[in-house]
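Subject: Protein record for review, amino acid sequence with backbone structure tokens
How to read it: Take the token row as a discrete description of the fold.
Enclosed: The protein record, placed directly beneath this head.
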Amino acid sequence: MSYYPAFALILFVYMSFWFLVSLIKKRNDVADLAWGLGFVTLAWVSLFFSGVPTMRGFLVNILVTIWGIRLTSHIYRRNRGKPEDSRYAAWRKEWGSVFYIRSYLQVYLLQGLLLFLIVLPVLYINASASVDFQGADIVGLAVWLIGFYFESVGDRQLKQFVSNPSNKGKIMDQGLWRYTRHPNYFGEVTQWWGMFFIALSIPGALFTIIGPLTITFLILFVSGVPLLEKKYVGRTDFEEYKKRTSVFFPLPPKK
């Protein structure tokens, strides 16, 4: 079996496994744990499947692992001891008799497809022969580090804010959240653009732009920003926050 179809099959089995876990646990939000770990799994399997791992391959795999383990750990701690995430709980009621089949197709297999598209720069790097490090590698690593900073620090700041009882019901507008309404989303997207820039050091990598374009589209127009901000529509404090704070790219607050 050729390289990319083999990993598509591995991903199919991986997401099917997590669907079975969701049935046992009776909570679909385990799909959020499967997300980060799926990138880590596919990255390392593809590196060694390629036969001759390269230093660039080890570099991007380490970056993916740092990102994936941190994200998964963050989500696990956030959900531990709590009921199923409200998004999935709502779908459980909304989908009724077709809940299981729709969960398998829409939550797990669709997520697997999106994961496959996003991780393309890493798969391409792992499958490629060794090429000397170039300027694009330095740019890519710098972009990835900026993204990791925004995502990890943004998550930590939000966790600290929410854990303070005096902030209950308030809008988070401190730290990085003063400059963008979604520093963690900005960070996640930026990291995948960093991966793409690293891939550009290898001839023929331009098609892997599918990866960062996919995560950018998802975050900005589908499951990220729109879904989260929908919960705050109509709140006076949030509307004021929107007027002075950039939706995505970090910018100085408007006066």
The CA atoms of residues 245 and 253 lie 5 Å apart.
